[in-house]
Design goal:
alpha/beta; five-stranded parallel sheet; Rossmann fold
């Protein structure tokens, strides 16, 4: 079973994570969504990361704001791909979260999407899974074709108005 683990530092991050859950489920991918904090529940973070592969995870998405260390802590403890999802903050509009996630030390990569980019985090997880699962790759090709068709239809409608 294809499975993506989705972690968030706080329950308040769920609105940012929900688009990732939705896109993954729409492609038939199982998700396990947890609230685990790198700072407040470090033992749980370590346990989750160390057991993620054994528990059937193939890709991990970590959403966090401010210091946003969750993705880095998880990436340090697993060989699974980790996608960082920066959460918008009041202080810097999410720039603090983005920079915390994207500036990982050598040897501990965390792929990063834009601030509040839950849908893109889910799609990136699907692209990673698509390497192993041809059915997901085919569904992604259809998904992208539908986006292209929509843009082409919008362009045609605009040209008719002009």
């Amino acid at each position: 079973m294809k499975k993506v683990g989705i972690l968030m530092g706080s329950k308040s991050d769920f609105d940012v994570v929900k688009p990732a859950v939705n896109v993954l489920k729409s492609f038939g991918v199982e998700t396990e969504v947890r609230v685990i904090s790198a700072h407040r529940t470090p033992d749980e973070a370590h346990e989750f990361a160390l057991n993620a592969r054994t528990n059937g995870m193939e890709v991990l998405i970590c959403a966090a704001g401010k210091a946003a260390h969750l993705g880095g802590v998880i990436a340090a403890l697993t060989t699974l791909p980790v996608i960082g999802l920066p959460v918008k903050t009041d202080m810097m509009g999410g720039l603090d979260s983005l920079l915390s996630i994207v500036q990982m030390p050598s040897g501990i990569p965390v792929a990063t999407v834009g601030v509040n980019g839950g849908e893109n985090a889910g799609l990136l997880a699907l692209q990673i899974l698509g390497i192993k699962y041809p059915d997901i790759a085919d569904k992604l090709a259809d998904y992208k074709k539908k986006m292209q068709d929509k843009i082409n239809a919008d362009d045609k409608a605009l040209q008719e108005l002009l």
